[in-house]
Amino acid sequence: MLFDHSIVDKILKAIFPLPERFGVIQFDDSFCDEGDFINQKEIYQSLQEVSPKTQIYFGITKMVIISPELPKVVIKIPFNGYYLINGQEYDEEGGNPLDHGDWLEFYRSPGSNISDYCLAEYEKYQQLKEQDLDCFVAKTLFYDTIDGVNVFIQEWVTPEGLSENVYKPSLKSKEKVTKLRDSYKELRLPDSNWMGICLDIYGEDKVKSFLSYCKKDPDILYDCHKANYGYRLNDSPAILDFSNFLE
């Protein structure tokens, strides 16, 4: 996985050190300025000064940095937090609503913390690689630990929901997908189109080996929705988020 380390370092230098906590606006422009909280916009603005058009996206457990200067990879940084569901805030495990206003609150996730889901993703990638099954997930590399926080690099995968992939699976593979769903009912499989393409590209034996592996480690597919799987730049299918933040 080739990428320009100098650009990654430039981006990381612009956003670190990050405070212990920071907020992400959800519904309005107001922000509760409390202690060491900073607005996500401040992080974004400092980043724009060194790498224009670079974007920051926040999941429940990680920050993802996407830069046109790094067209083949993304940068992932772990965080813990809670988020809004229908106007009520829940912690990362879906617990009771928290009364802190309409924004997300994130805490830095130290590298030794069990909530480092980026680390979990990296470890799962390594385990799949040992089984020669890493083709099904995005290549994930540990990059550095900065200010006590792990930083990871992952190959670019366009989510299914945003993909313009025009490749359609063969009729034979479509039929096999139906049988696979019956055989692996306990797993949350991606949509039939993606699964069919996996069969065409990787072969039935490889797909079955992967699904059998997932029966032992179902977390890989636990959060499998169209934002978490898609296609590499060469159009091969891959899962891009396989850490399971609900575990």
Give an account of the 3D structure.
- There is one protein chain.
- With about 250 residues, this protein is an alpha+beta fold.
- The chain folds into 2 domains: about 5-155, no CATH class; about 160-240.
- The chain is built from 7 helices and 11 strands.
- It has helices at about 5-15, 40-50, 115-130, 170-185, 190-200, 205-215, 220; strands at about 20-25, 55-60, 60-65, 75-85, 90, 105-110, 140-145, 150-155, 155-160, 230, 235-240.
- The strands form 2 sheets. Strands 1, 2, 3, 4, 5, 6, 7 and 8 form an 8-stranded antiparallel beta sheet that branches.
- The longest helix has 14 residues, at about 115-130.
- The two termini are about 30 Å apart.
Give a quick precis of the structure.
This protein is an alpha+beta fold and 247 residues long. It has helices at 5-15, 40-50, 117-130, 171-183, 192-202, 204-216, 219-222; strands at 21-25, 55-58, 62-66, 73-85, 88-91, 103-108, 140-146, 149-155, 157-159, 229-232, 237-239. Helices cover 31% and strands 25% of the residues.
List keywords for this structure.
three-stranded antiparallel beta sheet, alpha+beta, 2 domains, 247 residues, 7 helices, 31% helix
Question: Major β-sheet, in short?
Answer: 8 strands, antiparallel
- End-to-end Cα distance, whole Å, is 29 Å
* Class derived from helix and strand content: alpha+beta
How many discrete domains? 2
